[in-house]
Amino acid sequence: MKPYRVPQLARKYVEYDMIQQHTEMPAFPDSRTRLMFVFLNRNAQELHASEDELYALVTSLVQMGLDTHDMIDTLSGIRSPEEMRSRQLKVLAGDYFSSRFYQLLALAGRITAISKLSDAVCEVNAGKMNLYWGMKQFRLDATQYLTQMVRFKKELFLSFTSLVAEQDQEIWKQLLNKFALCDTLVEEWGKRAEPDKSRFGYMFWHIYGNGDRNEQALLSGSGTDTEAWRKLVLKYKAEDAILDKLRTAVTHIRHILSDDQNTGIEEFERMLEPFQKLLNSPHPVVREG
Fold first, then answer.
1. How far is 120 from 116, CA to CA, in rounded Å?
2. Alpha carbon 143 to its chain's center
3. Distance (Å, rounded) from C-alpha 137 to C-alpha 56?
4. Which residue has the higher pLDDT, 232 or 48?
5. What are φ and ψ of residue 102, in 5° steps?
6. Distance from chain centroid for Cα 78
């Protein structure tokens, strides 16, 4: 298989000093992009030259665009000049990442691929609207939240399933689902200590679903202070819930790979490294005080 260089190719589009200095950016979707590249590369004889690399690159850029827009806060109130700049840069950066896929595919004459990705973006945005409505009405549980978030992380990549070799399509979809789940759980883990970032995230719905009426009323109010949030995280073992699901997902990936005679697990180990590293590292559990 030829070398995987999509992250290096993406740098010219995602690494800008102004953006990096003044706002936070989402992580590059490396595991899903690498997975897509691997399966398209296996079907390289059916694709034109470097299409595997091109499709993996543009899909990662669109995903970066959607993820960047998801980081834009929707809170009301006065913001500092720095906060305003950060917010504006997220809007512009997300639009820019999303627009580059049109240009790259149009220059390559891959109009059908533009349609595939555009349709997938519409599906994701429609799904997010429904999810946000459920959040606003507090008609959601942790499992429903996680299922939808995983869907949003795999929808763009699934749009190229027809280009995966027919005999690989089932395992491709299984692995994509599990890697999207791992990426989602790592993202949720990164929010765990701060009530503002965790609000309406997996841990929020885990606690809300297990909490009593008073705790639910506290969570459904205008906000939860850091100390109260820490107590709830500890009481309902919300961090353990994330790590347990991540551990199970990694185990499932290895089982899927070991059951497939055409897929050696060795080439996927580097894709599992970030998840295994988190599971193996000591965790500074959120505690009271």
1. 6
2. 16
3. 37
4. 232
5. -60, -45
6. 29
pLDDT digits (tens, 9 = 90+) for 46-81: 777 789 999 999 999 999 988 887 876 655 555 566
How far, in Å, CA of 168 to CA of 161, rounded?
A: 9
* CA 243/CA 277 separation, integer angstroms: 12
Q: Kindly report the average pLDDT of the chain as a whole number.
A: 86
Please list, in sequence order, all residues whose beta carbon lies within 8 angstroms of the beta carbon of residue 248, skipping any fewer than 6 positions away. Answer: none
pTM: 0.90
Q: How far apart are CA 252 and CA 268, in angstroms?
A: 13
Out of 51-55, 92-96, 140-144, 234-238, least confident range? 92-96
Q: What's phi and psi for 88, nearest 5 deg?
A: -65, -40
**Cβ partners under 8 Å of residue 255, min gap 6:** none
Asked whether the predicted pLDDT for residue 216 surpasses 70, the reply is: yes
Residue 101's closest CA among 62, 133, 46?
Answer: 62
**Which of 19, 30, 9 shows the shortest CA–CA distance to 95?**
19
Please check whether residue 154 is in contact with residue 176, taking contact to mean a CB–CB distance below 8 angstroms. Answer: yes
Q: What confidence category does residue 269 fall into, taking pLDDT thresholds of 50, 70 and 90? A: confident
